[in-house]
Amino acid sequence: MAIEAWYMDNSDEDQRKPHKLDPNRPVSLEDLQQLGVFHWKLNADIYETDPELQRIRKERGYSFMDIITIEKNTLPNYEEKLKMFFEEHLHLDDEIRYILDGQAYFDIRDQEDRWIRIAMGKGDLITLPAGIYHRFTLDELNYTKAMRLFIGEPVWKAYNRPADDYEIRKKYMASLQKS
């Protein structure tokens, strides 16, 4: 099944709600790829031995991984972390996440600075390119278990918006002009 994405409304309602426009304006996988976002649907039940995941990790150089469970009872400073994840930011490296259980949303900005919400569920692996403004939140289930993948040692630094003067942001924006 393909990933589901849509343009978001401007409501200040709970961030964990879908926030679809009325009528809904879906965003295709091809549109996401033009923004540098890539998706795979994998079998999360066999993630420890999945040859497809191993192939993707080898081809893309994802040498480090860890697993995070985001729910109130297991994540220290849960509310603070959720607020931090939902701050609009960018990274100097790609962000790679694989949902092993539960559900969540990644929100990204398009070329016109509009929010696109990407619904992530069990088995979804996504890469967000370095330099893209984005944020993360749980949905109303308030639970997800995700594998975080990195090229080399993990870098946890987020640069909150505005970060347009960073070289990686300029490089990302230039890549959009070419597509």
Instruction: Quote the beta fraction.
Output: 25-35%
Q: Describe the largest sheet.
A: 8 strands, antiparallel
Number of strands: 10
- SSE arrangement, N to C: EHEHEHEEEEEEEH
Count of helical stretches? 4
Shape: globular
Helix content: 10-25%
CA-to-CA gap between the ends? 26 Å
- Going by helix content, strand content and strand pairing, the class is alpha+beta
- Rg over CA atoms, rounded to whole Å, is 16 Å
Q: What is the overall pLDDT average?
A: 96
Unreliable spans:
none
Can you offer a commentary on this structure?
- The protein is α+β, with helices and mostly antiparallel strands.
- It is 21% helix and 32% strand.
- It is built from 4 helices and 10 strands.
- It has helices at 29-34, 51-60, 78-86, 167-178, and strands at residues 4-7, 38-41, 64-70, 89-90, 95-109, 115-121, 124-128, 134-138, 144-150, 159-160.
- Strands 1, 2, 3, 5, 6, 7, 8 and 9 form an 8-stranded antiparallel beta sheet that branches. The protein has a two-stranded antiparallel sheet with strand order 4-10.
- The model has no long low-confidence stretch (mean pLDDT 96).
Key features of this structure:
21% helix; 8-stranded antiparallel sheet; alpha+beta; two-stranded antiparallel sheet
Describe the secondary-structure layout.
Elements: E1 4-7, H1 29-34, E2 38-41, H2 51-60, E3 64-70, H3 78-86, E4 89-90, E5 95-109, E6 115-121, E7 124-128, E8 134-138, E9 144-150, E10 159-160, H4 167-178
Antiparallel strand pairs: 1-6, 2-7, 3-9, 4-10, 5-6, 5-7, 5-8, 5-9
